[in-house]
Automatic annotation (TrEMBL):
Primary location group: membrane
Identification of the protein by name: Uncharacterized protein
Family of the protein in this entry: Belongs to the DESIGUAL family.
Membrane topology (UniProt): Multi-pass membrane protein
CC annotations in GO: endomembrane system
Subcellular location: Endomembrane system
Domain of life: Eukaryota
Transmembrane segments: 50-74, 94-114, 142-165
Pfam families named among the record's database cross-references: DUF1218 (PF06749)
PANTHER family in the cross-refs: OS07G0462200 PROTEIN-RELATED (PTHR31769)
Source organism per UniProt: Morella rubra
Keywords from the named record: Membrane, Signal, Transmembrane, Transmembrane helix
Length: 182
């Protein structure tokens, strides 16, 4: 089974969509707060059971997979024909979408990683010496923003892949014409 640009596009899109779904689930399943239980000189926060940390990690993993596959799909030699990267980077549109894809993937990873780590720290470090602690959770909205950024990143990778396919076809057509004229 040969690897084609269409198959790579489907893989990138599917991984991005899965990352989006897990990010939205992480945001919607996050508890609003914990219950403070006063103790002797401490407050223990009891949080309801929540899959937020697991969903956040899964969303981040699928975003990273989408980014890696998207990046590799741009430079993969389809049908055994390699195209120099300099040919791809001659296109201003390709350069713009390539950089926007990388930036958006990094932004999505930041928005997913920050609240996931914060939520994990709140759950694992639940004993506080400050008696006025109100048992916070991770900032609301960041996981959802990360979910949308990861979906956007996969869509930008798809646009960059389409531009790479066009540049590749143009280069190979020019190469074939040059060899036919010689």
């Amino acid at each position: 089974m040969a690897v084609t640009g269409t198959k790579m596009a489907v893989i990138v899109g599917a991984l991005g969509a899965i990352s989006f779904v897990f990010g939205v689930l992480a945001e919607t399943k996050k508890p609003a707060g914990g219950t403070p239980i006063p103790g002797k000189g401490v407050v223990i926060c009891k949080y309801p059971s929540s899959p937020t940390v697991a969903f956040g990690c899964l969303s981040l993993l699928f975003l990273m997979a989408s980014t890696v596959v998207g990046y590799l799909s741009l430079f993969y030699p389809y049908k055994g024909k390699h195209v120099p990267t300099s040919v791809l980077f001659k296109s201003t549109n390709f350069v713009v979408f390539f950089n926007v894809s990388l930036f958006t993937a990094g932004l999505g990873a930041t928005f997913l990683l920050w609240p996931t780590i914060t939520e994990h720290l709140h759950l694992s470090r639940n004993v506080h010496h400050n008696l006025s602690t109100e048992c916070p959770t991770a900032k609301t909205g960041l996981l959802g923003g990360g979910a949308f950024a990861s979906l956007d990143a996969s869509l930008f990778w798809l646009v960059a892949l389409m531009l790479a396919i066009n540049a590749r076809e143009d280069f190979l057509d020019d190469t074939e014409q040059d060899s036919a004229q010689a």
